[in-house]
Amino acid sequence: GALLFLLAAYIVIGAAWRLWTRQGEAFSIPGLIVALLAMPIMIWLARRKIAVATQLGSRAMRADAVESITCGWLSLVVVAGLLANLVFRAWWVDAVTALAIVWFVIKEAREAWNGEDCCAVQDGSDVEHRSFNSSMEADNSSVEARRRSHNSSRNRR
């Protein structure tokens, strides 16, 4: 959660600075290509991280997935800003479009900070966690039983 709040602050400070100094980003074809590629990659990455977070019951992995989603949204904002800058020659578009997603970042930061669990029982995943833990406990007890058996047979000799 804290990293998302820091990200939101960074976005606001960066946008405010660019508006204050009247500096906009110049159009860049390589920048546009990278931003266009980043959108689907970040969404795919976030989906994979959410799946892993659900399987592990990990709030940290869920927060990392949200940061990937945020990166995807930031890429969309960069694309919109670059295209608007190209078409309208508006220096301020990049800063304003960056501010447009701060609400999303803060919303996700609050959820992460308040500990809202992404991995609550929705589809029986908790049962899988319990089954996994039970099988691990069973494996540990069978290892312990084998060790006792081995030690007792060694002591008989």
Primary descriptors:
flat, 6 helices, mainly alpha
Helix content bin: over 70%
Q: Uncertain segments of ≥5 residues (pLDDT<50)?
A: 118-147
Structural category is mainly alpha
Strand content: under 5%
**What is the N-to-C order of secondary-structure elements (H for helix, E for strand)?**
HHHHHH
Write down the overall mean pLDDT: 76
Q: Measure the end-to-end span.
A: 60 Å
Largest sheet: none
* Radius of gyration from the alpha-carbon trace, in angstroms: 24 Å
Given the structure, what is the number of helices?
6
What shape does the CA trace take? flat
Number of strands: 0
What is shown here, in short?
This protein is an all-alpha fold and 157 residues long. The chain is 82% helix and 0% strand.
Could you characterize the architecture of this molecule?
Helix 3 packs antiparallel against helix 5 (102-113). It is built from six helices and no strands. The protein has helices at residues 2-21, 29-56, 59-88, 93-99, 102-113, 125-156. By secondary structure, it is mainly alpha-helical. The longest helix is centred in the last third of the chain and has 32 residues, at 125-156.
